[in-house]
Design goal:
The protein is an alpha+beta fold and 421 residues long. The chain is built from 13 helices and 22 strands. It folds into two domains: 258 residues, FAD/NAD(P)-binding domain, CATH 3.50.50; 150 residues, no CATH class. The strands form six sheets. Strands 1, 2, 7, 8, 9, 10 and 21 form a seven-stranded mixed β-sheet that branches. It has a six-stranded antiparallel barrel with strand order 12-15-14-13-16-17. Strands 3-6-5 form a three-stranded antiparallel β-sheet. The mean pLDDT is 95. The chain binds flavin-adenine dinucleotide (FAD).
Length: 421
């Protein structure tokens, strides 16, 4: 069966596709949104640990510092639809939002699910037709012009004609949500260069790993990245011990550089400073005071005064002591080692969480071949790209979703305006 022709077909009903489809329909285009999963926006529904950190209220210049590799590319997309526009759109749908620490915005309900449902309802209200279980197999291109898509069906693949096509298929992390990287193949089909794809915002596997401390989250610590023995950056904040290594905000922040350095075959280490507020002299003085106070107790008693309970065993082992041994053993060399373990606890990075656990995909459709004013392909007429499949990614804090929303909005608007010409 050959379906009727649409003004625009949008591939992928994630945040970028929903905004692209809704905006194009709002401007009068007939829009079909194709989603291969049984439900739209599966990834959005699990964002922010189920709470959806939908955007960040920081000003534009601060945003640009959080984005890789070419933040200026987004100036136009952000000018057309930014954080306040998103909040206004959601509030207008009856979805209340709140701003938390670090200017991060969440729905008041703390439910990512509510954001997904509101956006789907909004897109439908604009007149978007959504089909689920509709996996696009290929773009149909004629003489460097987009003319439609082939969609897998129960029988033979079905052809759907449309004047414009917007590819919003996401990256390739968390593939169970539907983002399996299909859009990179479509972009390749249209002659676009794909910048190397790497998992980013991902936890690391370390040697040694401390599974005994799994789940322990340490706040106000400092992590330093070492590449081939040279210090390459520090982050201050929170990290968490996992079964195989480390995760949490400061790990994610450094993960882009960690993944790239490992891929280049370099030796990567991280070190933790558990007492960044104390310089070595002050820490030594503090240790001296603790030893004087607890000298008649055990090593365990002394360590407990300095560390969370989950770390007592591992620290005692690393110092070659039993927690039950007398604290009086903390003489010169052991004391020195403890100071080092508190200020510069080193781990070699031996792996990372991979595509299954990465929050975003770094790399993607090259920015050089997309017009930043419209998100249009510079290779194929009437073809647009939006969202994570474009070679843009950001730190945590709501920036990645805002990139998807902004580029989606601009792509939908540009397609609709082109149709009106
Ligand atoms: C666990 C987790 C937590 C996150 N938390 C946050 C957060 O709190 N804040 C933040 O800013 N970012 C967060 N992110 C990142 C954010 O979710 C993504 O950057 C964003 O979802 C990208 O939007 P998108 O529309 O480009 O792609 P996606 O959300 O990946 O949507 C793409 C859609 O396209 C569909 N699709 C793919 N191929 C086809 C095909 N061939 N045919 C039809 N449909 C297809 C997919 O099924 C999917 O529904 C998180 C990511 C993860 C994995």
């Amino acid at each position: 069966m050959k379906r009727k022709a649409y003004d625009a077909v949008v591939i992928g009903a994630g945040p970028a596709g929903l905004l692209a489809a809704g905006r194009a329909a709002m401007l009068g285009a007939s829009v079909l949104l194709l989603e291969k999963m049984e439900k739209p926006a599966r990834k959005l529904r699990i964002t922010g640990k189920g709470r959806a950190n939908i955007t960040n209220m920081k000003p534009l210049e601060d945003y640009l510092k959080e984005i890789h590799p070419e933040p200026r590319f987004l100036r136009q997309a952000f000018a057309s639809f930014f954080n306040q526009d998103l909040v206004a759109l959601l509030n207008g749908m009856g979805l209340e939002t709140k701003t938390e620490r670090g200017e991060r915005v969440f729905p008041v309900s703390d439910k990512a699910w509510d954001v997904a449902e509101a956006l789907v309802a909004w897109a439908k209200q604009q007149g978007v037709e959504i089909i689920h279980h509709a996996r696009v197999e290929n773009l149909i291109l004629e003489e460097d012009r987009f003319v439609g898509v082939m969609v897998a069906g129960p029988g033979a693949p079905e052809r759907i004609d449309a004047t414009c096509g917007i590819v919003a298929t996401g990256g390739q992390s968390y593939p169970a949500t539907g983002s399996t990287g299909d859009g990179f193949r479509f972009a390749g089909q249209a002659g676009h260069r794909i910048e190397p794809l790497r998992p980013s915002l991902v936890g690391i596997e370390t040697h040694p790993a401390w599974p005994g401390a799994r789940g322990l989250s340490l706040r106000n610590i400092q992590m330093t990245l070492w590449i081939d023995g040279k210090k390459q950056g520090t982050e201050f904040g929170e990290a968490e011990f996992t079964e195989k290594g480390l995760d949490g905000p400061i790990v994610l922040k450094l993960s882009r550089r960690i993944v790239d350095a490992r891929a280049a075959g370099r030796k990567v280490e991280v070190s933790l400073d558990l007492k960044p507020a104390l310089d070595p002299q002050k820490l030594e003085a503090r240790l001296q005071r603790e030893i004087e106070k607890r000298g008649s107790g055990t090593c365990g008693d002394l360590l407990r005064a300095l560390l969370p309970p989950q770390l007592i065993e591992v620290y005692a082992r690393a110092l070659g002591q039993s927690p039950a041994a007398p604290a009086a053993r903390f003489t010169g060399p052991i004391r020195k080692k403890l100071l080092l373990l508190l200020k510069e606890l080193r781990f070699e990075v031996v792996g990372h969480g991979g595509w299954e656990r990465a929050i975003v995909t770094a790399g993607g459709v090259s920015l050089k071949e997309i017009d930043p004013k419209t998100m249009a392909s510079r290779k194929v007429e009437n073809l647009y790209f939006a969202g994570e499949l474009v070679d843009l990614d950001a730190n945590t804090g709501g920036f990645n979703l805002q990139i998807a929303f902004s580029t989606g909005w601009l792509a939908g608007e540009s397609a609709a305006r082109k149709l009106a010409l």
